[in-house]
Write a structure and sequence with these properties.
Largest sheet: 10 strands, mixed
Shape: globular
Oligomer: single chain
Structural class: alpha+beta
Radius of gyration: 19 Å
Number of helices: 5
Strand content: 25-35%
Helix content: 10-25%
Length: 251
């Protein structure tokens, strides 16, 4: 029986989602908790990697159980009791036996938070950049990200991707609760893509790069043309969407 777990986590204490040698990861922590509850070694497969220090407001992973799980909300309660404070499971849902948390996802959404003032309560969840930013220019540049195109300029080098083509459906900055928030959604993301985009858009906002120059970065298909990646603590995975038919209706 295959199940999707919906969870959230703070990435501060972890070397990303994926299991690492001699370093804590969200995947390993979740696997150990599931194995304890199910009393059998249990692996989990995530919707994708998140880098060291990156957070997730809504992440999805799948696991297999030998028998149907009874009382799914009670299962969540007991799983949360074992997990550390910085990982929380919101829901568990039965899915088709061939459903895949990564490959069946049709769209993902990230948000990046920039605090324009020093704030001790946001230092772990936002990039504190205390300088004027031109949001109108940043949004004008962000519009050029929309559509299906090659994002090599914003990809981590030597990632081994079969293709760097992604289809971006939303890319927009707005002010929210005293922060500048960038929301970007796409059918897929490359490693380090969002942080590289944000770092380059911040160059536009600071006047170091024109809107036309940002477009040239995309067209150049060269990581050396883009700006420095924004730091990880401001980045959150906020949504992973799947077709309705991956879920099994519970009777």
């Amino acid at each position: 029986m295959r199940y999707f777990l919906e969870l959230s986590y703070s990435g501060k204490a972890y070397n990303g989602w994926q299991i690492q040698n001699n370093a804590p990861s969200v995947q390993q922590t979740l696997q150990e908790a599931l194995s304890t509850i199910l009393r059998v070694p249990t692996g989990v497969v995530g919707a994708g990697r998140t880098d060291t220090g990156v957070h997730a407001a809504r992440y999805v992973a799948h696991f297999d159980a030998e028998c149907p799980l009874e009382e799914l909300q009670r299962f969540c309660y007991h799983l949360n009791a074992i997990l550390p404070w910085d990982i929380a499971v919101q829901d568990v849902r039965r899915v088709r036996d061939d459903a895949h948390a990564r490959f069946d996802a049709v769209e993902r959404e990230y948000k990046y938070y920039v605090s324009p003032r020093k704030d001790p309560f946001r230092r772990d969840v936002a990039y504190q950049l205390i300088m004027p930013l031109d949001l109108d220019r940043m949004n004008e540049a962000a519009e050029t990200l929309l559509g299906r195109q090659d994002f090599t300029s914003f990809s981590k080098l030597h990632s081994g991707n079969k293709t760097n083509i992604c289809r971006v459906t939303r890319a927009q900055w707005r002010e929210q609760d005293g922060c500048y928030v960038f929301t970007v959604a796409a059918d897929r993301f490359l490693r380090n893509m969002v942080r590289a985009i944000v770092g380059t858009l911040l160059d536009v906002g600071r006047g170091k790069l024109s809107v036309e120059g940002f477009r040239a970065v995309i067209d150049g298909r060269d990581r050396a043309l883009a700006g420095t990646s924004a730091p990880p603590q401001g980045l959150f995975l906020t949504r992973v969407d799947y077709p309705d038919d991956v879920y099994v209706k519970q009777h």
